[in-house]
Amino acid sequence: MLPINYLAVLACGIVSMILGFVWYGPLFGKKYMQLQGMTQEQAAEHMKNPALRRKMMWNYVFTFVLALITAFVLAHALYYVSVYEDARGISIGLLVGIMIWLGFVVPATANLVFFDKKNWSWWFLVNGYYLIQLLLMGAILALWM
């Protein structure tokens, strides 16, 4: 079994949720809603519906679990790269975060623009979040490795 710091993985999950709250809230919440075709009035009505609020709560739970999975897999990639490159520290964490983003997130989300008719503004907003998420996770994992 690899020496994975599970406390660091948990910290990554928490940081990811905080980042998402800030990114899709005060920073770019209005723009994201606009790109999704939703008005603030529709969002407010959405939150008044108990069934939709309950669904939203479960969405956050699943999002947290997915962030933990991302951090767990990133920790493994970081471990292998650090052993292969004989490197430690924040720079290797940032490098692995960028490489994971560039190699997996960018192509997958670009396909959403091509085939699901998302626009490039949406792509840049969402990918900015994923890039920062992976950079933060890489830094946390590298520092706690």
Question: In words, what does this structure look like?
Answer:
Helix 1 (6-27) runs antiparallel to helix 6 (120-143) and helix 4 crosses helix 6 (120-143). The protein has one domain. It is an all-alpha fold. Helices cover 86% and strands 0% of the residues. It contains six helices and no strands.
Lay out the secondary structure.
Elements: H1 6-27, H2 29-35, H3 40-48, H4 50-85, H5 90-115, H6 120-143
Helix pairs in contact: 1-4, 1-6, 4-5, 4-6, 5-6
What's a quick, concise take on this entry?
The chain has 145 residues and is mainly α. The chain has 6 helices and no strands.
Q: Which percent band covers the strand fraction?
A: under 5%
How many β-strand runs?
0
Mean residue pLDDT: 91
Count of helical regions: 6
- Spatial gap, N to C terminus: 15 Å
Q: Compute the gyration radius: what is it?
A: 17 Å
| Tally of distinct domains | 1
Low-confidence stretches: none
Output the structural class.
mainly alpha
Coarse shape: globular
List the secondary-structure elements in sequence, H or E: HHHHHH
**Share of residues in helices:** over 70%
| Biggest sheet record | none
